[in-house]
Amino acid sequence: MELGVIGLGRMGQIVVDRVCSAGHDVVAFDVDEAAVERAEATGASGADSLAAMTDQLGAEKRIWLMVPAGDPVDAALDELEPSLDTHDIVVDGGNSHFEDSVRRADGTEAAYLDCGTSGGPAGAELGFSLMVGGPAWAYEELEPVFDAVATGPQGHDRMGESGAGHYVKMVHNGVEYALMQAYGEGFELLQEGRYDLDLESVAKTWNNGAVIRSWLLELCEEAFREEGGDLGDVADHVAGGSTGTWTVQEALEQGVPLPLIYQSLAERFASRNDRFSRRLVNRLRYGFGRHEVRRT
Amino acid sequence: MELGVIGLGRMGQIVVDRVCSAGHDVVAFDVDEAAVERAEATGASGADSLAAMTDQLGAEKRIWLMVPAGDPVDAALDELEPSLDTHDIVVDGGNSHFEDSVRRADGTEAAYLDCGTSGGPAGAELGFSLMVGGPAWAYEELEPVFDAVATGPQGHDRMGESGAGHYVKMVHNGVEYALMQAYGEGFELLQEGRYDLDLESVAKTWNNGAVIRSWLLELCEEAFREEGGDLGDVADHVAGGSTGTWTVQEALEQGVPLPLIYQSLAERFASRNDRFSRRLVNRLRYGFGRHEVRRT
Amino acid sequence: MELGVIGLGRMGQIVVDRVCSAGHDVVAFDVDEAAVERAEATGASGADSLAAMTDQLGAEKRIWLMVPAGDPVDAALDELEPSLDTHDIVVDGGNSHFEDSVRRADGTEAAYLDCGTSGGPAGAELGFSLMVGGPAWAYEELEPVFDAVATGPQGHDRMGESGAGHYVKMVHNGVEYALMQAYGEGFELLQEGRYDLDLESVAKTWNNGAVIRSWLLELCEEAFREEGGDLGDVADHVAGGSTGTWTVQEALEQGVPLPLIYQSLAERFASRNDRFSRRLVNRLRYGFGRHEVRRT
Amino acid sequence: MELGVIGLGRMGQIVVDRVCSAGHDVVAFDVDEAAVERAEATGASGADSLAAMTDQLGAEKRIWLMVPAGDPVDAALDELEPSLDTHDIVVDGGNSHFEDSVRRADGTEAAYLDCGTSGGPAGAELGFSLMVGGPAWAYEELEPVFDAVATGPQGHDRMGESGAGHYVKMVHNGVEYALMQAYGEGFELLQEGRYDLDLESVAKTWNNGAVIRSWLLELCEEAFREEGGDLGDVADHVAGGSTGTWTVQEALEQGVPLPLIYQSLAERFASRNDRFSRRLVNRLRYGFGRHEVRRT
């Protein structure tokens, strides 16, 4: 299969790598020429403009957008639209709001797949979890690509109609906030509590057989190993919050109570000093997402 | 090594099986003769009384208690005490409160290890996570047994002095409550939300590569597979709560805020009754606004 | 002063009564003729159409809208607009969203005052608390009317530019949710706790000198007196929630944490349904611990 | 009636003043001689020792303890006990834990009344709200004194058996935490939100007719008037927390969920920087209790 990839940042480059490694052809474009060169170095065919990319893809285009959520998605779609027809498929693999995805699906000639992508840069080797919304035929057509980008056939599924993929990803992120904060609370109590504990040892022991073992807990263990059990100079300041905010907003519209997810978001808002739990969350976001760690 | 095991319920039997499988000798006792016979069938030597067990163990006794937390632990220790001296080691593998463990460690001649055990009956094959408190020499002496009961050498560690093992296990359970409730909130929003989703597919997709993958999420997937995506007749009623209560109590003493863990416990309480608080709010809305009072 | 009042429901009728009692002239209109007749009985001059009302008011019209928030406000404004010019003043005394009020202020020739009104039907005798947004000259011009509708000159003030009145009222309602739930929690603990208490006596004693005395606590006392200390057949079901939802939505946009107000809203949502989240936790406890699953 | 008052701090002196003003005789004792002299200046008869006080009171002693909760109560009772018999009555008007009160009631010959006292130093003129537990005959016997110390006959009542008074007071304080935090959240949103508001005007307007008017809201108004709408240099640091902690602990034992009260306590624990809501609570505790305001 031939896939056009637009946006060659950290995540886009991983998509290129994994799709090329699976034996597919990739035509890669980014406004940053250096990024295009990197993609070429890993086997993609570089394009120096969107138009060049669509020319190269010919009929029945399959295009994967991996650009920042918001205006960049609309800008790319606007430029692509004249070249698209009903046989084409566009995937948005970013963190778009599901309502934007529904609007974009309605506004394009192509079949439009909204694809929530979880796993972060740390997922480069294992592959991602892909939650896909949109027309069934388009999802099925792209399964070989999803197999390559995901952990394999188990790592992706069609969630439902347009928007369902980004909807499920939005909720995923809300849960993620709460899981991180829950671990943070536990480690805060251990850190402040009445025993002098080695938190890396605690995390390691839990990761081997305990009910609460998880990938995020492995990232806790890594954090304590790399920063020390007291997290060194990691600051009590948690950035981010848009997808968690969307989750709470949607739950308000649905009348669904989400006290833990809300509180996790509220902790971020409140994070302006030395809450150990939030210092841990700050560092965890580096663990899976390579978000910059703010330091004191 | 020769290990006496007292208490042959579901968890005690797993300890017997794993220790026998690792090539150690087990002397097993329970007040239920059928349980003793089951232990014998898996290679243990059965004892028909505590005294018979201690006789069989001879000098340098190593004894694993796997009886329900509370009075049964004290009862077993009272009966054992005359046979114990400073060369002996007693392990409490149950969910005792850490303060009871400190008290018991102070009250026995033997070296006393408090051992938090996580993994549940589902951990029979993989092995458990063991968080151990108490004298270092006793912990080291029992490492071969811990290797066998845990997932292996990575699955156990000495957390610190007496009580530290059950302390860490207590906090583990508090975190466990919050993780379960966090997943619950996410799936609730997906279930009540604007797409018609297959929750088993969501859980499976997340378990393959997503940031929030975990063993508890695998259990969510299993639950949806076995009960259906709407959870069938599973009730809105969550039992249990003692270790979560202890976690919150300890955090109150330490002045550590645990809003997610507290809220998870509060949800359990709330699932068991009508809320008087909400009935009053219902009525107050009539008081100031003449809104209709809904009645049972 | 001559005031036109549109909307003669419970709250509109109180406005008519209080303004007439203060010696002003009222021209009253409602689509319900019986409501107009009631207004006439208390001293207003009835109008049988909006047009008739505006004719009667002549130049420099002062009009008070007391219709349900949402479309009815826009409908009334659309019909009024051709008769309005820059010397006229329109007050929206309902529970409109502040962003709608800003939009309406921008869309009319008249000076537009958004007026949050608190006190409920129970405030008929005491007068209301009025939080007003919009042009200063219009607020000052209408002070005699505000004096009459409010508890007096202390019971109203100009909060700021357009929207500020409904903004402050929105936050007022968020606080109101939390205050009610806070009292509810206290009385729930007293009701479920270890003493057999007379909650009406508790509320009465608190209302006389205690730190937590308030008008809502007087309404609690009234509720226990009228319904009994166990609240009889009052249901665990709290309706309403729109202004609280707006408050939380605005706080999300501002990045302000509101855990108590959020939780109070979540309690309302939770009072209306089984919680899927808790049903999942119920089932998960079987998953790892083989705890019995309670079923409906 | 003749009443002995032990403990002549701020609250004890108010008790002396109000009981003297009502025409009763007071014998006052404190370890601080200056305090005894102040009590004498307002009409009490000073005693220079507990023994001198009990001698003066003769048979059928009525004694009001107004000493700090904890050991000072036990110390005073130990010293009094030899002089007490079954015709005597001792009132503990402080913030004792209800379980201590039950224990003390069981341990004395005298009839023991636990009396929760709300209103703080600010209640000196209005009188307090008194929640009393213990024997009915003793409560009735002391009604004239309660009438004097409380706002009047409506401001006190017998809640039930021993401990019930301090139990109800404990819950009162839990509710108090939540009410303060709820106002704090509302004002935080107004302060951080999109309008430039005069928070003193908001509070004043609300206090005149709004649903959420209360004495605590009057204290908010006072705080903004005295400190400015931005609360000046009032720090984000909330001290105290013992009675709120007791409330949550009791609710844990009763299985009653108290999310708002818990969260209010958690906010105090978390208060180490610039949460506007907590700065307000800091200041409010001065408003009713004259607790020192910590400043930056």
From TrEMBL, chains A, B, C, D:
GO MF assignments: NAD+ binding; NADP binding; phosphogluconate dehydrogenase (decarboxylating) activity
Alphabetical keyword list: Gluconate utilization, NAD, Oxidoreductase
EC category name: oxidoreductase
Binding residues for NAD(+): 7-12, 67-69, 95
Domain 6-phosphogluconate dehydrogenase C-terminal: 165-296
Highest taxon of the lineage: Archaea
Leader sequence residues: none
Assembly: Homotetramer.
Protein name: 6-phosphogluconate dehydrogenase, NAD(+)-dependent, decarboxylating
Species: Halovenus aranensis
